[in-house]
Amino acid sequence: MTAPAEPAREAGLPEFPMRRACPFSPPSAYAELRENEPVSRAQLKVNGKPAWLVTRHDLYKKLLGDARVTANLKLPGYPLQVPVDEETLRSVPLTFLSMDPPDHTVQRRMLTPEFSVRRMRELRARVQRIVDEHIDQMLAKGNSAPVDLVSSLALPVPSLVICELLGVPYEDHGRFEEWAWAIMSHEISEEERGRAHYELDRYVDGLVTAKESEPGDDMISRLIAFNRETPAVEHSDIVSMSKLMLVTGHETTANMIALGTLALLEHPEQLAAVRDEPELMRNAVEELLRVFSISDAGTARVAKEDIELGGVTIRAGEGILPLNNAANHDESVFPEADRIDVRREAARSHVAFGYGVHQCVGQNLARMELDVVYSTLFERIPTLRLAAPAEELRFKDDAIVYGLYELPVTW
């Protein structure tokens, strides 16, 4: 396999992604760009290709609501964040995230009922039991030595929830968590990432094939049954949707559980507020989602035709990165945006789940899980505290989705 030639890098253009100087704030350059050049050019660190960055909240929403942009990652201008050989990219079918209407609409219509508000209300009691069981296990270890909150709670809870929802055997969680990590890492080789995609595809294909013969009471079986009654997609599409839900359904929520717990422990006045007024927790969830905005790469687009935005012209074929983390720290919408405020009235105006037709289909599940985990954790372990200074923790600056590798705690 021959790697594509790297484009010449343009002098003076900032590289993307940019690293956070503070774990609770976006890269410092975002504020300057938002103020002086809210639609600006950058070059991708992975390959030197140019792309446009959109950093203002109103322009972010305007761009993602524009039918003249596409999510098709096969287009030459698409700002991919990981190295991918062009030949490999051409051979990979588009997934739900990279489709445009009407294909995207068909698959979204199949998935939406699985994440409805009513479905989440039905699921909440089971999520509560899962959270309680894992906190029981934490407490049973005692507090003689630090416990890693990531491996003890933040990762296993959403992994188990999404497994039960999809109908995936939880005993396989170690394998798909490893594959998910490889797929989302900036710093592994293209061969390793390709191998992870291949193994995960083969695994999920086997699950779907088995459920086509022996369905159960789970999402994959319901997608199969729906498609038999109203044929709309192929077997491979159900595999692709199931793979996407499996990976994104645990990885993003796991990172938010760890980051949100860290933020509340590091801001005791905010933790005290939700303890005194438990009804604030749902707003606190929105504020934490806003503050961390853990993925800037999921909203990448390509202009299908020339677009005027923020006083500049984005030409047809050029790549665009509307930055969640920049839009969510826009002072015109969120005053004192770098300050965590669980009472913030505008918190729910965040775009951590994206915007427009591709807004995250699983956002109701994520919100519910975060609400249950944070509320239960701090109620049941009121003396929870960090077992290592925050500045010594390892953050996922090397991954598409931001998070923590470990979070040692004690009580």
Write the layout of secondary structure elements.
Blueprint: E1 15-16, H1 29-36, E2 39-44, E3 50-54, H2 57-64, E4 69-70, H3 86-91, H4 103-111, H5 117-140, E5 147-148, H6 149-154, H7 156-166, H8 173-184, H9 190-213, H10 219-229, H11 235-266, H12 268-276, H13 281-292, E6 301-303, E7 307-309, E8 312-314, E9 319-322, H14 324-327, H15 363-380, E10 385-386, E11 408-410
Write down the secondary-structure element order: EHEEHEHHHEHHHHHHHHEEEEHHEE
Tally the helices. 15
Q: Which architecture does the CATH hierarchy give at level 2?
A: Orthogonal Bundle
Strand order across the largest sheet: 1-2-3-9-6-4
How would you describe this structure to a colleague?
The chain contains 15 helices and eleven strands. It has 411 residues and is α+β, with helices and mostly antiparallel strands. The chain has one domain (15-410): Cytochrome p450. The strands form three sheets. The protein has a six-stranded mixed sheet with strand order 1-2-3-9-6-4. α5 (117-140) packs across α7 (156-166), α5 (117-140) packs parallel to α15 (363-380) and α8 packs across α9 (190-213). The protein is globular and about 60 Å long. Residues 1-5 have low confidence and may be disordered.
